[in-house]
Amino acid sequence: MPNDPLSRLIAATHRAHDALVSADDRLLSDLGLSHARARILATLAEQDGPRTVSQLARVLGVARQGVQRLTDDLAAAGFVAFVDNPGHARAKLARLTEAGSSAHSEAERRRAAWAEGLGAGLSPTWLEIGGELLSLLRKRATATAKL
pTM for this structure? Predict the structure, then answer.
């Protein structure tokens, strides 16, 4: 494995991502949520009205099949309801239920408190630079993958 600075940064980013997702899973588990399920709820909360599973997958940048499985799980738990789609006979629309909205709000509250502790002692400048660097790497990786 290469040991240049960029390769080390990429490896550290992967390890950080794994650790953050695992921590999020633990933080939300008693709500009946995982990191992935909470992303679906957050996406629905941010949208203007119900969305199809395909629309959610596009917004999240992930495969529709995975979003379908997660959305079905959320519906079984009472966090999401499927409603008829006037624009398409087969593609139902997913919408947050009251329980889903409450779970999303609690997840966001917990995440905010957790993030405050996580960021303690880190300067706003470091955080801005880190965010900009990761955004640039994401854009370049996305552009390179299309070649």
Answer: 0.88
How many CA atoms are closer than 13 Å to the CA of 43, on its beta-carbon side? 23
Q: Where are the alpha helices (DSSP H) in the chain?
A: 5-28, 35-46, 53-60, 64-76, 98-118, 124-145
Residue with tokens 């002692």: 121
Give the tens place of pLDDT for each residue, 17-63.
Answer: 999 999 999 999 999 999 999 999 999 999 988 999 999 999 999 99
Q: What is the Cα–Cα distance from 92 to 94, expressed in whole angstroms? A: 7
Q: How far apart are CA 45 and CA 64, in angstroms?
A: 19
* 29, amino acid identity: S
To the nearest 10°, the Cα dihedral for 2, 3, 5, 9?
80
Residues ≥6 apart with Cβ < 8 Å to 68: 53
